[in-house]
Input
Amino acid sequence: MISSFFTLLYETFSRNVGNYPKYYQVILAPSQAELAHIGSDLQKLQAFTRTTMEEYAANFGKGIESKDLVWFAKIEHSRNFDYTDRAVQLGEQPKGIAKTGDQTHIHVIVSRTENLREYVEGKKNELHERKNPYHLSPLTNHKATTKGPVIGGFERNSFSQRTEQSFDQAFNYERKLTESFRFLHCMKYGDEQAKGEMQQQAAEQAQKRAQSREQSQGVEMDQQPGKTLENEFADDLRAVLSKAYQQKDVNDLGAALATAQAERERQRVIEEQKAEEARKLALEATKLAEQEKIDRQLKIEQEPRNAPRISRGLSR
Output
């Protein structure tokens, strides 16, 4: 298991038959934010799973496709805390308690040996000259090798990133940097300089998002009659000028206009100050929440007893 906190969780378990694994399990576990974005739509999850298995096949670097694999997928909607969860290991959650929120995820069981029917058919039609079918292991240490007995390999980090990108592109998901594979992998394995640079990028992205939201809210306000400073100023100015005209006091018209303009400027400054204070508070809250999340995860990851484990079975 690479990490239990990746937005798109990738786990590989194996069932041994003889001296080597026969099957592997890949678990795709979108975050609750991702599930909410697609409305936990089962058809979208099925399409996403098919796309992921195409990425899985391509990642071996052997020119094979999903049809060259033998795999089966099942969608599940609930999960319980068990001994593999760090929260249980740290005593923060009891074992067996159901996890809250949308826990929809996909289990994929895939054979280590490529699809023999496709292999035999391809060999019969002279599509390839291989004497034996491929044996495909996502746990191999080879990564895009071009020489030696093993050609290709399996780059697990690349697979995780491409799976994440496939989700974002398919469903127009605007992923925060802090929930990306790149950010979380850097926070776990990067040096202090890399972590600092990544956190700075995350803070800058959060600030840009906050500014974009403020601008959108400003446009919405401008589109609502009677809600903007311009409309309020116009109403006040009409009232002052009407009063001066009714009193036949021409000399006061200039003074009334100047007073109205001064009031408008004062209101504008006040609104800008309020918007700036709100922006700063939102940015500080975002930074604090992200830092607390990172600190909690680092605390968990630094525990020696929480080293990733590989289960020797197909049960969750």
Summary: The CA atoms of residues 151 and 283 lie 49 Å apart.
